[in-house]
Amino acid sequence: MIRFLLSCWLVLFFFGTSLAQLDSTRRKPVWKPFIAPFSLMTAGLVTQGSISREIRRSVRQEFPNFQTKADNYLEFVPTLVPLSLGALGVKGKHAFKDQLVLMVLSQGVANSLSYGLKRIIQYPRPNGDDNLSFPSGHTSVAFTGAAVLSKEYGEQSVWYSIAGYGIATSVAGMRVLNDKHWVADVLFSAGLGIASTEAVYAVYPWIQRKIFKQNKLAVMPFYSGQTYGLAMVAPL
Predict the structure, then answer these.
(1) What is the DSSP string of 179-190?
(2) Residues 51-67: what's their mean pLDDT?
């Protein structure tokens, strides 16, 4: 079963990095970038239940004392890397301002779907902490950031994509090893993060023409006491 778990991580990594090659293909069908993320989401649904429980039993036998908080920090690395590169003047597919907007929109869509599904589905965590296991918020954040990094800088060097998806896959693995999530949770969430990013990039040209044409967009941080992030303000 450990071999099966390792296969899942290889699948996550392979599907992620394969998207970098799709980005370099011009005039591709609009549905093609969604094949990989939808495949991951389907895998998450298929492995839900008995398969995930069996994998969890095997993982706990092999790594009974595994515990780390690194996943709480690494989840943000794929998001911070492209924004840092853009802020430092490293040219990506879009200007830095557009990168900010794309990241905010992508993370906003992915997190809204992720936390909305958590509240609706109420699936118990493997360690019994609560009923917010499916899907994994950490994994969706990490893979959304990795997808943006790949789309902005993956054509310059495939190592950007490899690094981003490698870190995101590590976060997914840690969530399972920490007994915070089932394998099904992280598979589905990886696909959700990538699909959200692909959808935002697909509609962004329309957003630029119809919403941001006055070029009066502001992006600013916010903190409400319980949550934090980036907010966009634009005239409509």
Answers:
(1) TSS-HHHHHHHH
(2) 93
